[in-house]
């Protein structure tokens, strides 16, 4: 096991896949010579060269369009959209083209591509560079949606996304880039569509994603220490496909469920999961489903304002302490 | 006396022309392709009014020479991308007429299993990589296919057909710049039929020639071709393809043409000034091309043979499509994912 940062795991995954498959190519703004604005792609251009790691203009429609055309004709492109907020300027290519082409052509078109993007808040970037938009992608039939919380998952799930025959949007939480974790040595490949139980407890099940996973874990430790409440924490990892088996089974074990989402309140991913839980295991529940979310507002840039909006360890702790009492 | 001189000149020209860079075989192909498009479009129009085709449809009546000229110049493994006005471009790649009409009619035999319709015709086996119904989207997508060709050194080209209205959307400009800086083997073909849907293109565009006048912004030569002359289109296509295959990068071609019908099924085209359609009907590409074949010495019986064969093929395809059942409901739940299914959970 080696300790890598979340950002190092990104380049490690891409390098691993580029070494084994000549069809894998990578494009985006500042990703090659500059190594990415978040330094998550350092070293790739040096190893794989101009033909496979290519800087692009600030043209998100061209980036994703080119990735799509290349995927349709036999390559396996990885496209970076620097901030997930920028998906809004190329959303046609995502939701009308990439997501639907296989379906609309009766299965004629292949679409093996990955869109990597820096998602989420906590970096004081303001409302246009801090959004958590994984729920946008989740709403569109035809796109797989992955959001890892640890360096090991970044490497294993990004490798799986690159090998996946379907389009995957890979949401990297930008506040996690500097975090460290153990990553298995050698080739590391995980499976998309599997949630992971990262803490076991008997009283309440917390469902979390990306940055919310370490916060949920910290809140769970404090709950245990300060109140005796014992929480299971499930890292959902993949919104599409959704591992409803693990989610429902972990909810049934405790009879209490709390979702922790960075999305603004309306139509955050927790709403969909809550609806599935309510429909499919209502009679196993001992309390109403609780959603902890960012309020339905754009994010601010000031430290105090941003921190007060995104679910914090304190808020998760307090909410669960009151609800589970 | 004067008349004889003209005739004499014509005979001389005939031999020279038939053995020119295009030749008899390609010309007969282009004549056939134009006729196939013409008859398929007319048939689609008729089937709409019999209520056998639903939804919408955007016909290329009058614009046949562009798809046919490019189609005749393409290699079978080249890629084409077109718009919702894409029956023509799909057909010239050799797509099945039954599959095409069946798709328009929502039948099981449809080339997209009834899941796409008129605006999304695609035949990947033939290199017809899709019809795109959101303006501009397919320009960068075509550039991506060209990237594959460049990366794998296949010498394939990607051709992207679009209308004059597309030149005013952002994706057009992104794709042009991108294709030039990456020197991609892609040929962008603007079919300027003078109208952006219901509005004259000149009323909404800063320059006179919506594509050609923008070419210089991307370091490309300004190319305008008579889009109603299949020979002229073919020659432009060959030049652009040679450049692309040799690593010379993209081209942008503006082909001037006119659509004989309205924008879509719902549009009678009443915004057009009196006499404009009549003027353009005099330049209808198909009678013009037929006359050229005869002038060049091709026997009329050969021409008539092609005309009859095309009409018969369209009739047979119509009957086959009509006879096909509607798609089974299960089809709605297939092809979301590569595994053939649509499941989003376990």
> Unreliable stretches of chain A, pLDDT < 50, 5 or more residues?
none
**What is the CATH domain class of chain B?**
Alpha Beta
Distance between the termini of chain A: 40 Å
The chain pair with the largest interface is: A-B, 50 and 56 residues
Element pattern of chain B in H and E: HHHEHHEHEHEEEHEHEHHH
Tell me the name of the CATH homologous superfamily of chain B.
Answer: Thiamin diphosphate (ThDP)-binding fold, Pyr/PP domains
Q: What is the overall silhouette of chain A?
A: globular
Q: Please tell me the overall pLDDT of chain B.
A: 94
**Order of SSEs of chain A:** EHEHEHEHHEHEHEEEEHEEHEHEHH
Number of strands of chain B: 8
- List how many beta strands of chain A DSSP finds: 14
Low-confidence stretches of chain B: 1-8
Enumerate the strands of the largest sheet of chain B in spatial order, edge to edge or round the barrel: 2-1-3-4-8-7
Major beta-sheet overview of chain A: 7 strands, mixed
Task: Strand order, main sheet of chain A: write it out.
Answer: 3-2-4-5-7-6-12
- Into which percent range does the helicity of residues of chain A fall? 25-40%
- What's the CATH C level of the largest domain in chain A? Alpha Beta
Q: What is the annotated CATH architecture of chain B?
A: 3-Layer(aba) Sandwich
CATH architecture of the largest domain in chain A: 3-Layer(aba) Sandwich
């Amino acid at each position: 096991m080696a300790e890598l940062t979340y950002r190092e795991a990104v380049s490690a995954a891409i390098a691993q896949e580029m070494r084994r498959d000549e069809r894998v190519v990578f494009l985006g703004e500042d990703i090659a010579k500059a190594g990415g604005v978040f330094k998550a792609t350092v070293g790739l251009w040096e190893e794989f060269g101009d033909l496979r790691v290519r800087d692009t203009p600030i043209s998100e429609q061209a980036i994703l369009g080119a990735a799509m055309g290349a995927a349709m004709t036999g390559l396996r492109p990885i496209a970076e959209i620097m901030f997930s907020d920028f998906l809004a300027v190329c959303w046609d290519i995502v939701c009308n083209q990439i997501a639907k082409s296989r379906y609309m052509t009766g299965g004629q078109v292949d679409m093996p591509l990955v869109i990597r993007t820096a998602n989420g808040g906590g970096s004081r970037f303001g409302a246009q560079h801090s959004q958590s938009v994984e729920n946008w992608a989740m709403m569109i039939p035809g796109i797989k949606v992955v959001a890892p919380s640890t360096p090991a998952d970044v490497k294993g799930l990004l490798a799986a996304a690159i090998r996946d025959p379907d389009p995957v949007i890979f949401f990297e939480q930008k506040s996690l880039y500097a975090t460290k974790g153990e990553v298995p040595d050698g080739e590391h490949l995980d499976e998309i569509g599997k949630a992971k139980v990262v803490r076991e407890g008997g009283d309440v099940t917390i469902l979390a994603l990306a940055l919310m996973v370490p916060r949920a874990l910290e809140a769970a430790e404090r709950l245990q220490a300060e109140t005796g409440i014992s929480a299971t924490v499930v890292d959902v990892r993949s919104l599409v496909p959704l591992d409803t088996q693990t989610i429902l089974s972990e909810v049934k074990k405790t009879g209490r469920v709390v979702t922790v989402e960075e999305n603004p309140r309306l139509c955050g991913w927790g709403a969909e999961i809550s609806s599935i839980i309510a429909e499919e295991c209502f009679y196993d529940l001992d309390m109403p489903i609780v959603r902890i979310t960012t309020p339905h507002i754009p994010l601010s840039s000031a430290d105090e304002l941003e921190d007060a909006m995104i679910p914090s360890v304190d808020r998760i702790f307090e909410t669960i302490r009151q609800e589970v009492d | 006396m004067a008349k004889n001189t003209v005739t004499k000149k014509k005979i001389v020209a005939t031999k020279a022309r038939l053995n020119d860079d295009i030749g008899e075989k390609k010309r007969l192909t282009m004549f056939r392709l134009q006729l196939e498009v013409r008859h398929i479009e007319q048939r689609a129009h008729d089937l709409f009014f019999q209520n056998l085709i639903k939804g919408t449809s955007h016909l290329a009546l009058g614009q046949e020479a562009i798809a046919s000229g490019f189609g005749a110049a393409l290699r079978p493994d080249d890629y084409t991308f077109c718009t919702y006005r894409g029956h023509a471009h799909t057909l010239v790649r050799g797509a099945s007429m039954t599959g095409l009409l069946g798709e328009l009619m929502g039948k099981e035999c449809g080339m997209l299993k009834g899941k796409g319709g008129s605006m999304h015709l695609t035949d990947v086996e033939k290199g017809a990589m899709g019809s795109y119904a959101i303006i501009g989207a397919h320009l960068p997508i075509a550039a991506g296919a060209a990237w594959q060709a460049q990366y794998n050194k296949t010498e394939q080209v990607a051709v992207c057909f679009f209308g004059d209205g597309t030149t005013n959307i952002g994706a057009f400009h992104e794709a042009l710049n991108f294709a030039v800086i990456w020197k991609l083997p892609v040929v962008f073909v603007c079919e300027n039929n003078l109208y952006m849907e219901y509005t004259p293109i000149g009323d909404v565009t800063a320059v006179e020639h919506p594509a050609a006048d923008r070419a210089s912004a991307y370091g490309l030569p300004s190319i305008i071709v008579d889009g109603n002359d299949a020979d002229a289109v073919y020659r432009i296509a060959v030049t652009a393809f040679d450049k692309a295959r040799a690593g010379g990068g993209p081209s942008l071609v503006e082909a001037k043409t006119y659509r004989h019908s309205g924008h879509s099924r719902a549009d009678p085209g009443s915004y057009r000034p009196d006499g404009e359609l009549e003027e353009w009907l005099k330049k209808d590409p198909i009678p013009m091309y037929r006359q050229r074949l005869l002038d060049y010495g091709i026997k009329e019986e050969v021409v008539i043979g092609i005309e009859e064969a095309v009409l018969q093929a369209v009739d047979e395809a119509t009957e086959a499509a009509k006879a096909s059942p509607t798609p089974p409901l299960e089809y709605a739940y297939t092809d979301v994912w590569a595994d053939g299914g649509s499941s989003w959970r376990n």
